[in-house]
Here is the input.
Amino acid sequence: MWKSSVKPVAAAEVREFDHEADVVVVGYGCAGAAAALDAQASGADVVLLERLSAGGGSAALSGGEIYLGGGTPVQQACGFDDSADDMEQFLLAALGPDADAEKVAAYSRGSREHFDWLVGHGVPFKESLWDSPTWVPPTDDGLMWMGEAAHPFAAAAAPAPRGHRVTSDGFGGKVLMQVLGEAVAKAGIPVHTDTGAQRLVTDVDGRVVGLVARREGRDVTYRARRGIVLTTGGFADNAAMVATHAPVLAGLPVNSDGGDDGRGIAMAQAAGAAVRNMAAGQVGITLVPGMAVRGMVVDERGQRFINEDVYPGLIGQAALFKHGLRVWVVLDEQAYEEVPEVERWGVRPHHVAETVAELEAEIGMPDGALQTSVAEYNRHAERGADPYFHKAERWLRPLRAPFAAIDVRRGMSAPEYGDTGGGAEVFTLGGLRTTTDGAVLDHDGVAIPGLYAAGRATSSMHARGYISGTSLGDGTYFGRRAGVAAAGLR
Ligand SMILES: Cc1cc2nc3c(=O)[nH]c(=O)nc-3n(C[C@H](O)[C@H](O)[C@H](O)COP(=O)(O)OP(=O)(O)OC[C@H]3O[C@@H](n4cnc5c(N)ncnc54)[C@H](O)[C@@H]3O)c2cc1C
Here is the structure.
């Protein structure tokens, strides 16, 4: 995607630096804002660079869901007990296998304090629960389930809803970034916009001491007396990097602000940084969770492959990785009608039939395939059971004529985001290998002096799994830790 070199420049080649600060934070999304705020609060003088003409990043477009727990005031007000241990066990199960256990533990233990930090900066959360699977609640409710009560997670940890949604009349990311932006401005942190970092500057010992950026067609140099924090987002918009590292995501629409070009990751790799879990991705499958949970999600052989009450991104991962997104939501008229219009995101059935036999023929499934699945599903649903996938009894009911099917590849119209087609929108979860304090590690597992990172530029807590809220959550939480460490306080 980029043409210019990402190789580090030797400090000796930089005659004079144009700018100097203790900590240089690169990328003004949620991780960058948090890193800058806590680096400055630690006594460092900070400059925040942003390639575009304003901050926000993908964070400003996001749903504003932040995964928090351990007994936050919002959880308590909604009547839920929670503990850091249960949060940790859930995240290990949902983000794994091979989730970063140290980061998951730190994040879960730090979650209550992180909630206070967010609220302290003015991030609003309403003390009310949205109690049905969804991507983003159509109300301004502040708490939502992320599949914690679903099989197999309910057995791993006592369930509690931990999706904390920034109060908004739609997607809450814009509110989050507006509030963090006000905090950055109030703290007097200089923001250099239209300034895209291109290459790191390293000294003879391999320490990262600065960077070269491009502004208005010119090279601009920055010296970082204590450290650089890379918070440049992921690489989902870089087709070449995706093809190399995460080919299963290649060609799919991307869920980002369009700027996830991976440059920050590549700059650090060129300076010796290691990466982790580069093949992992969030798969925002284009189905309406409220419809899926009331019906069945089936593959092209008419077979279910997951319990439909898990976090819908996990349905997306299973659908993409195992079934190439050739999946359908099968439901009946009652199930469709039960989902309020505002939650349907423009989705209407693509096939309608009086019998399951007609429906499977219309879709092009093998004769009898879907009929067998629906008969089995109904037989057990009759007594509130799902012995195949263990969907919660609350969502089980025999499906009755007339039947309908939705082809997820036909997409939907997400509010504030427009039409989404192709079956899923994805972003990458892999990135730089870092410590819990954001130090970027080399291939020997040794911290590269002077270099820190957070947010989607890192692999952070995730392995193959994903739960909504862990991006804004880990970006801000580990961004803060990286900022403090870069300031020299850890
Ligand atoms: C529609 C949508 C909904 C989402 N909903 C949620 C949700 O509800 N909860 C959740 O947790 N996650 C959600 N996400 C994902 C989440 O928004 C991102 O994963 C998160 O914003 C990543 O944070 P970040 O700070 O690492 O990167 P970003 O927020 O993308 O910020 C990176 C910034 O770095 C800048 N930058 C990049 N390269 C350079 C460079 N070389 N020099 C200078 N600046 C640079 C970019 O311009 C950008 O401003 C959603 C994403 C989308 C698109």
Remarks:
- The first strand starts at residue 9 and ends at 10.
- The chain has a mean pLDDT of 96.
